[in-house]
Write a structure and sequence with these properties.
The complex is a heterodimer of chains A (120) and B (110). Chain A is mostly beta strands and 120 residues long. In chain A, 0% of the residues lie in helices and 50% in strands. Chain A contains no helices and eleven strands. In chain A, strands 2, 4, 5, 6, 9, 10 and 11 form a seven-stranded mixed β-sheet that branches. A four-stranded antiparallel β-sheet of chain A has the order 1-3-8-7, with no helix packed on it. In chain A, strand 4 (32-39) and strand 5 (46-51) form a beta hairpin. The relative contact order of chain A is 0.33. Chain B has 110 residues and is mainly β. Chain B has no helices and nine strands. In chain B, the strands form two sheets. In chain B, strands 1, 3, 4, 7, 8 and 9 form a six-stranded mixed β-sheet that branches. Classes of the chains: A mainly beta (120), B mainly beta (110). The interface between A and B is medium-sized, with 22 and 27 residues.
Chain lengths: 120, 110
């Protein structure tokens, strides 16, 4: 069965960086793309960017350009999202989700979410 | 880019039907058939219930249906059940090769 298992909760200070991992299993990692989506407490979903693990292709929401980097390691079927220059506004649950290539709106499996808390 | 526009709340009694709208522009909802809907229960990850405007993933009841007219997509839940009470989000591919979500609608089953 398809699973996306994310790393645990993190507490960071303002100005720091955080790196969240997303380990895929149950399918061939390079045959689907992955998005990262975040959700602040009581707020809606916010798309951050996508990556194609079968190439070097990535894409980012304009809001996060220059502050987020998506990487991956195909040998261990794991995707990573690094967010820098954290502020309290970045406190949220971060999700990874897979989608079929060229179907960016069709996220059929999601990770369980990783809570990132930014606090001094 | 601003979020797609959804009503903050919707409600209906068990057995009734409810429709949730999702309004965008010709650069997103109106320009592509890549519109999806997600259901999210409290503390859980979102679940895909509609993709490509009208298609249902395997296992999603046919009580859930989607449609689109111009720049507005809609999700209809027929035969409301208690377990349908959740937050619902629309999303659309955009002309910038990005994804945009709606602000979410809280569906209450009375």
């Amino acid at each position: 069965q398809v699973q996306l298992v994310q790393s645990g909760a993190e507490v960071k200070k303002p100005g720091a960086s955080v790196k969240v991992s997303c380990k895929a299993s149950g399918y061939t990692f390079t045959t689907y793309d992955i998005s990262w989506v975040r959700q602040a407490t009581g707020q809606g979903l916010e798309w951050m960017g996508w990556m194609n693990p079968d190439s070097t292709n990535t894409g980012y929401a304009q809001k996060f350009q220059g502050r987020v980097t998506l990487t991956w390691d195909t040998s261990i079927s794991t995707a990573y999202m690094e967010l820098t220059s954290l502020t309290s506004e970045d406190t949220a649950v971060y999700y990874c989700a897979r989608f079929p290539r060229h179907q960016l709106a069709r996220h059929d499996y999601w990770g369980q979410g990783s809570l990132v808390t930014v606090s001094s | 880019q601003s979020a797609l526009t959804q009503p903050p709340s919707a409600s209906g009694s068990p057995g009734q039907s409810v429709t949730i709208s999702c309004t965008g522009t010709s650069s997103d909802v109106g320009g592509y058939n890549h519109v999806s809907w997600y259901q999210q229960h409290p503390g859980k990850a979102p679940k895909l219930i509609i993709y490509e405007v009208t298609k249902r993933p395997s296992g999603v009841p046919d009580r859930f249906s989607g449609s689109k007219s111009g720049n507005t997509a809609s999700l209809t839940v027929s035969g409301l059940q208690a377990e349908d009470e959740a937050d619902y989000y629309c999303s659309s591919y955009t002309s910038s090769n990005t994804l945009i979500f709606g602000g979410g609608t809280k569906l209450t089953v009375l």
